[in-house]
């Protein structure tokens, strides 16, 4: 690999990419294509002397416990450093240190870093229309809310969070494995106010059908 080569960038989700490994046995996500700013020779032999000359205006944003992106074998810098001025390329080289590859992303898959599976007990990604729904509903703590088509649980968990997990959110979906996904997401986020049932939401107000659903009927008849 030479400086200027077009390279594809993947994120090693579970940190399985090890030096000397002949095969990759892990989970990876394609992040996009870019152009290598450094050759292999520069990476492995031309940079050690630069480790002590890191730009102080950049290093605070790229550190972990004092080491430059410690434990990362691939460094992806998305244009920001280059836009800092005419010396951006030199700053990029200084930041790489003796490990990693400086890549200028030209075809990113996402305009922002992927947050999928990042802090799963704290973050649940939704698209904008899904996120807006719960705010329009404006549920209050202590209320009982019915979500008729709830899987996989994005809006359901959002509603429960806005209610401060006080009250009840009744979540319905007619496919059983999707109901399990709702329960899993509620458990992952530590939400105890969600009650998920396998039920066709289009029949939720048909009393003859509801009465035949023992576990579920008391909830619907009270709403």
Automatic annotation (TrEMBL):
InterPro entries attached to this UniProt entry: MeTrfase_RsmB-F_NOP2_cat, MeTrfase_RsmB-F_NOP2_dom, RCMT, SAM-dependent_MTases_sf
Highest taxon, organism lineage: Eukaryota
One GO MF term: RNA binding
Pfam families the UniProt entry points to: Methyltr_RsmB-F
Keywords, in A-Z order: Methyltransferase, RNA-binding, S-adenosyl-L-methionine, Transferase
Domain SAM-dependent MTase RsmB/NOP-type: 52-223
Protein residues bound to S-adenosyl-L-methionine: 149-155, 173, 200
Gene3D superfamilies: Vaccinia Virus protein VP39
GO BP field: RNA methylation
Family: Belongs to the class I-like SAM-binding methyltransferase superfamily. RsmB/NOP family.
Protein name: Putative methyltransferase NSUN6
